Amino acid sequence: MDTVTRSVTPEAPPSIPPEGMTAAARKPGWGTYVPWGIAGLAIWWLLYRNLAPLAAWFTYSLMPLTPGTHLSAAVEFFVYETPKVLMLLTLVVFGVGIIRSFFTPERTRLLLSGRRESTGNVLAALLGIVTPFCSCSAVPLFIGFVTTGVPLGVTFSFLISAPMVNEVALVLLFGLFGWKVAAIYLGMGVAIAIVSGWIIGRLRLEKYVEDWVYQTQVGGAGPEAEPDWAGRIRLGLDAVKDIVGRVWLYVLLGIGVGAGIHGYVPENFMAAIMGKGAWWSVPLAVIIGVPMYSNAAGIIPIVQALLGKGAALGTVLAFMMAVIGLSLPEAVILRKVLKPRLLAVFFGIVALGIVGVGYLFNLIM
């Protein structure tokens, strides 16, 4: 029987159709975003520079309204401030989304573990500015810090700084009021976080943390994948979609309130209530600000309108810090891990610090 020898040519591996590619293979590299980014920034800058004449055209030509009336002043304020704040917010959130890709909560916890308390207070306050934080993350962050050896005072420096020294508020203040007001806000917010955390650490209040917190075992996290620059840009875009998508309504409400104040509140009314002459204006502003839960983007237009109507800078800064840094939702969530006495000490020390900032800047500005 003859043996038939056949030559078998190895089959080429099947090609992967485009629709079968993995998500990672389909994602564009960072170079793809560069021309789009340059074009987007150029359009952004052109629109931003022309918002004032566009608002005036809309109010007095398109509507049209009579110049000098309460309604026209309120409408022009709203039409001008709405795109201005949203444009600044979008740009800031994108940039901060990229920065935050370098500072994950797990990496922050590792940076703070094992630090001397005084050094840790400063580092925690600075890290709080750029680390992702919201009221819903307060409990897991607190548990993770305390159970891995981060001192209680250092933990509170972070918990105070993260919501109070809000990077969105910082850049919006810079864009709307200039670098001096932004620097005052940054410096005082960090100082309050450092000093408040240091005082809480000195009071030795660990026994007022709920017992179950210390019994919680926090497993070690695996190594985190370091994103490339394309990934960081995508994180920035995702941050814009997530954050701006969640806060735009608060922005509109805040601008609406600010427009009402700008158009209808008499010039001297806010000076009498929130001016330097009324000693009670600063603590009253803090008391009013605590239950008014809002985000930074929503409160900035109100701050702008209050200052425009004669309110004192220190009083307005105290009001803004209370709204951003001492929210009732955060208090309710933190009650899960803090006994009432420690929670009251936390709020009391921060409130006193904010009141002190208000009086100080009403005195020197």
Secondary-structure blueprint:
Blueprint: H1 23-26, H2 30-49, H3 51-62, H4 70-100, H5 105-112, H6 117-130, H7 138-147, H8 152-164, H9 167-177, H10 179-202, H11 211-215, H12 229-264, H13 269-274, H14 281-289, H15 296-308, H16 313-325, H17 328-334, H18 340-364
Helix pairs in contact: 3-4, 4-9, 4-12, 6-8, 6-10, 7-8, 8-10, 8-16, 9-10, 9-15, 10-18, 12-15, 14-16, 15-16, 16-18
Give the tags:
365 residues; mainly alpha; 18 helices; 72% helix; 0% strand
Written account of the structure:
The chain has 365 residues and is mainly α. The protein has a domain at 105-207 and 265-364. Helices cover 72% and strands 0% of the residues. It has helices spanning 23-26, 30-49, 51-62, 70-100, 105-112, 117-130, 138-147, 152-164, 167-177, 179-202, 211-215, 229-264, 269-274, 281-289, 296-308, 313-325, 328-334, 340-364. Helix 4 packs across helix 9. The longest helix is centred in the C-terminal third of the chain and has 36 residues, at 229-264. The protein is globular, with a radius of gyration of 26 Å. The protein starts with 22 loop residues before the first helix and ends with a helix. Residues 1-25 have low confidence and may be disordered.
